């Protein structure tokens, strides 16, 4: 579970910006259950939404999370002298081009709370720190500096000097320790690898390999869960199957790709899902089912719900975090609300899963169930820098919990909407 995430000097985010799931109230909401941390010491929201105009930086907040996750997972593969593809500093201020990108995340895994921090430039880690909270008190696990010096906390167990010999300027210490079978840090590494799922740009063209299809082939029980999900969404689907087809033939995989990975990709690429619909005769349902090719015969909205299904269901079943960009893309607002309510309903979200979305769907803003702290906005300054702030920062007497926020938002009272200037167009065209 994520407590909060902070980013600085990344893409359009120049100054430090923090997105939080933290609830100010320690009491359970009457409408839905908050997530209790450390025996109720802290409460977290199961759902948070980011709103803002196009190009205001909503997606960049999510890209920053993606960058941190990939940095941790891919760091071990780098060779001496390799640069970080995740190093993308703010470009509209020359001073920032030489400053480090900074990420910090506070999270809970295995009932333990951690804070992980990293600062890096193009080819070097400047600083990397990991803290945790045994018995609720902050303690150091390790602190690493740009000169490859590592300071260990008293709770750090395992070989130290051997691990330090594996450290390079462009390698993170966390994955090195995790791969040494250090149980405590292995849990932290697995959090980034397995407990944060990011669905970037909810567009089928950006999701070439569907994990839903893979799960259908691997797990017979998953079909029942998938059908329940699709039926609840009122898509008219009564069955689902996967056929093996030779769609790609001799696909030109890169030479350096392993044979094992090639087989996995071929298996996915040549798996064709079909969704079954009940056939009617004279207005009466028959026992016959017609199967539609998901790729050619189903709507974009149905395809997107199919793609999201595995991520939503696995997240709910495992109590992890799902992040979705362009949440409203191609989906009816009723389906957006349906997905959100899965996480807000304690009878469904029994494992304390979280959903973070970037969206334009203002109908969600009118759901009285939402609290001010769950609604975040991005806006750009005149210098082109993203500003991230929550609805909770506005006057509580004017904007109250459970209100209809959409009108205020569209009226520009929270900023975060496009400043459209027709005069500029008239000057250019007429």
Would you identify the regions where 5 or more consecutive residues have pLDDT less than 50? 203-208
Class by helix and strand content? alpha+beta
Supply Rg: 24 Å
Helix proportion: 25-40%
Q: Indicate the mean pLDDT.
A: 86
Into which percentage range does the β-strand content fall?
A: 25-35%
Shape: globular
Number of H- or I-type helical stretches: 12
Largest sheet: 7 strands, antiparallel
Structural key phrases:
430 residues, alpha+beta, 7-stranded antiparallel β-sheet, 6-stranded mixed β-sheet, 12 helices, 19 strands, globular
Structure description:
- With about 425 residues, this protein is of the alpha+beta class.
- The protein is built from twelve helices and 19 strands.
- The protein has helices spanning about 60-75, 160-165, 175-180, 185-195, 210-220, 220-230, 260-270, 295, 300-320, 335-345, 405-410, 420-430; strands at about 1-10, 15-20, 20-25, 35, 40-45, 45-50, 100-110, 110-120, 125-130, 140-145, 150, 195-200, 240-245, 270-280, 285-295, 320-325, 355-360, 375-380, 385-390.
- It has a seven-stranded antiparallel sheet. A six-stranded mixed sheet has the order 12-16-17-6-18-19, sandwiched between helices.
- A hairpin with an 8-residue loop joins strand 1 (about 1-10) and strand 2 (about 15-20).
- It is globular.
- Residues about 205-210 have low confidence and may be disordered.
């Amino acid at each position: 579970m994520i407590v909060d995430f902070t980013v600085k000097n990344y893409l359009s985010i120049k100054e430090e910006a923090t997105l939080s799931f933290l609830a100010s109230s320690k009491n359970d909401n009457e409408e839905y259950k908050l997530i209790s941390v450390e025996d109720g010491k802290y409460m977290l929201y199961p759902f948070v939404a980011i709103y803002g105009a196009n190009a205001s930086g909503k997606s960049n907040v999510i890209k920053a999370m993606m960058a941190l996750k990939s940095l941790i997972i891919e760091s071990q593969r780098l060779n001496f002298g390799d640069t970080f593809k995740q190093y993308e500093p703010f470009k509209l201020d020359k001073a920032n081009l030489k400053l480090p990108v900074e990420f910090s995340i506070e999270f809970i895994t295995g009932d333990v709370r951690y804070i992980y921090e990293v600062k890096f430039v193009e080819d070097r880690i400047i600083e990397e720190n990991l803290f945790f909270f045994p018995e609720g008190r902050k303690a150091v696990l390790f602190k690493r500096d740009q000169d490859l010096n590592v300071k260990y906390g008293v709770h750090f167990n395992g070989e130290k000097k051997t691990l330090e010999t594996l450290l390079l300027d462009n390698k993170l210490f966390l994955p090195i320790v995790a791969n040494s079978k250090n149980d405590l840090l292995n849990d932290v590494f697995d959090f980034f690898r397995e407990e944060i799922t990011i669905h970037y740009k909810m567009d089928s063209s950006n999701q070439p390999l569907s994990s839903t299809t893979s799960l259908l082939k691997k797990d017979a029980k998953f079909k029942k869960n998938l059908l329940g999900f699709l039926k609840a969404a009122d898509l008219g689907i009564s069955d689902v199957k996967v056929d093996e087809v030779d769609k790609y033939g001799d696909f030109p995989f890169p030479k350096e790709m392993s044979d094992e990975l090639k087989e996995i990709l071929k298996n996915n690429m040549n798996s064709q899902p079909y969704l079954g619909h009940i056939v009617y005769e004279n207005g009466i349902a028959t026992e016959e089912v017609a199967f539609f090719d998901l790729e050619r015969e189903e709507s974009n909205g149905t395809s997107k719900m199919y793609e999201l299904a595995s991520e939503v269901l696995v997240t709910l079943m495992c109590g992890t975090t799902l992040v979705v960009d362009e949440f409203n893309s191609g989906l009816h607002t009723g389906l957006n609300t349906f997905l959100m309510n899965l996480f807000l309903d304690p009878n469904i979200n029994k494992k304390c899963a979280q959903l973070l979305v970037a969206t334009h769907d203002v109908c969600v803003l009118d759901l009285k169930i939402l609290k001010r702290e769950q609604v975040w906005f991005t806006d750009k300054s005149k210098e082109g820098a993203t500003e991230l702030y929550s609805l909770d920062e506005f006057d509580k007497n004017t904007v109250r919990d459970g209100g209809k926020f959409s009108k205020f938002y569209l009226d520009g009272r929270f900023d975060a909407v496009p400043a459209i200037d027709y005069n500029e167009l008239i000057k250019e065209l007429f």
